[in-house]
Amino acid sequence: MKKIEPKILKGFRDFLPKQMAIRRKVFDIIKDTFESYGFDPIETPTLEYSEILLGKYGEEADKLVYRFKDQGGRDVAMRYDLTVPLSRVCAQYSQQLTKPFKRYQIQPVWRAEKPQKGRYRELTQCDVDIVGIKSPLADAEIIAIIYNILNKIGFEKFTIRINSRQVLFSIMEKAEVSKDEILSVIRSIDKLDKISIEEVKQELRLKNIKSQTIEKIFQFIQEAEPDIFLRDMLSLVEKLGVPKDFFKFDPILARGLDYYTGPIYETFVEKPKIGSITGGGRYDKLIGIFIGQDIPACGTTIGIDRIVDVIEELNLWPEFSSTNTRVLITALDEFFIGQAIEISQSLRLEEINTEIYLNFEDRLEKQLKYADKKGISFVIILGLDGAQENTVVLKNLRKKMQKEIDKSEIIEELKRNE
User: Fold this and answer.
1) For the chain, how long is the longest CA-to-CA vector?
2) Which among 290, 314, 338 is the end of a domain?
3) How many domains does the chain have?
4) Do 259 and 250 meet the contact criterion of CB atoms below 8 Å apart?
5) Residue among 90, 95, 164, 160 nearest 129 (CA)
6) What is the domain extent for residue 370?
7) Residue 175 · residue 153 · CB < 8 Å
8) 358 and 276 housed in the same domain
9) pTM (2 decimals)?
10) Domain stops at, among 280, 314, 348
């Protein structure tokens, strides 16, 4: 038999149980927060017609879309983000959706870019969006959701940077950038977090932007202030309970995607330097591409892949267990299989996740090591020498304590130690 090397493509990852446990907990925090603000879930297909996705993000991003012909010869592409598919949904089902439409979506997306720290070719996005509202209160609510999620996860030092495409458009107009060049210039400014100002200026020169215009752009960026919409929004963010220390106006923030029309926002942690962990903004013209009239909309992506990377690197959850199993039932003899099954079923009826060790021929030491390595908190031992007929030994591996209790007391004892 030919041996096949076990490997995966660059930019793609396997998630083992410990990583999955962290991811699931983060998902739960995100989902619960979304729903606490009145958002409902949707899902969209992995594949879309290419024409649905392309031409919405910008030239550079379009190059990163996985695109191919399927077996039927159709020109299809894999989701690049969740915002464009949402816009298609809003157009396609406009008569069925309650307005304003508040939706969240948690699904993977794919991008054919160069993998690096915090940047993957397959990633999971957790999006929350409000469709049909022009008010700055909608944008402010999105910012409040970002703050509450990161606060619940345990982040203590992060900054939600806020700007507006309208502020940037005003800067471009003052600097006399032609209309055809505005989005291209903004895409270059968006790289200021990754490369130096001089490198961005050089990139602009290569785009044939005049040196005088480039200097004006950076001069007006330094002098920029929030517009009226943004000022109202920032005031509402504070009223929604977001402390001032956690958000700020930042005229350099650009967001590289073409479809943004108003406020834009990204979140950065101080350590590790991993790029933005959330990003979004207002896109009042994107849905109109599909429906023929502009529909106001805003939202953000919560980048769970980078968030989990930060949790692991900073060890934010040092006591976190890698398993959802709470109890392991062990025994010293197969004679106790029937009792083990009976006890396990009674615990599961009480929603206590329980596993039976499947080989009672193994030494008890090996069975206990299995529980400890897996991160299981409690072990029920059947048939231990000296134990009474109707009793079991309940071992707490976290506290390194054990005691003999009656079988009828197992559930009460476990609930007491929740």
Assistant:
1) 91
2) 314
3) 2
4) no
5) 90
6) 327-416
7) no
8) no
9) 0.89
10) 314
